[in-house]
Amino acid sequence: MKRERAGRSDLTPQEQAHARIALRFLRARCGGWEPLSKILRGDMVTIRKAAGGGVISASLAVRIARFVKVGIDDLLAGKYPPAGACPHCGHVASADDATQSSGVSVEEGGAAQKIAL
Asked: Global pTM?
């Protein structure tokens, strides 16, 4: 059985970039590279290198998708993590959150302005 040469992947560069975003997000969610590598059943150094710009194998992408319970197509398309998701608590900021952010209203020259804190 022939091994795949290092530096090659069945994934496109864009798909690999989306998987890297998911890895970095999951590192924060799981508390570091060591717990994440155990969850994904992979070598910590390899996973850390992959997240930092190394090759993302199709196998690693499938393990990520299974762990977060999303389809592989959604992971590779960049739908995970959702835009605006906090890697620490998982909260996804919505447009309503931005308009309801805490702030102080200041009147200047008769016009009220809201200053975000």
From this structure: 0.73
Alpha helices in 53-94 (DSSP H): 58-68, 72-76
Q: What is the pLDDT of residues 12-38, one digit of tens each?
A: 999 999 999 999 999 999 999 999 999
CA atoms within 13 A on the CB side of 27: 17
Is 110 domain-assigned? no
Question: DSSP label at 10?
Answer: S
In angstroms, rounded to a whole number, what is the distance separating the alpha carbons of residues 109 and 29?
A: 46
Report how far residue 31's alpha carbon sits from residue 38's, in angstroms, rounded to the nearest whole number. 12
Give tens-digit pLDDT for 61-110: 999 999 999 999 999 999 999 989 998 888 988 766 654 544 444 444 55
CB 43 within 8 A of CB 37: yes
Which residue range is the domain that position 31 belongs to? 13-91
- 61 by Cβ neighbours in 10 Å (0-12 / 13-18 / 19+) ranks as buried
Structural domain includes residue 97: no
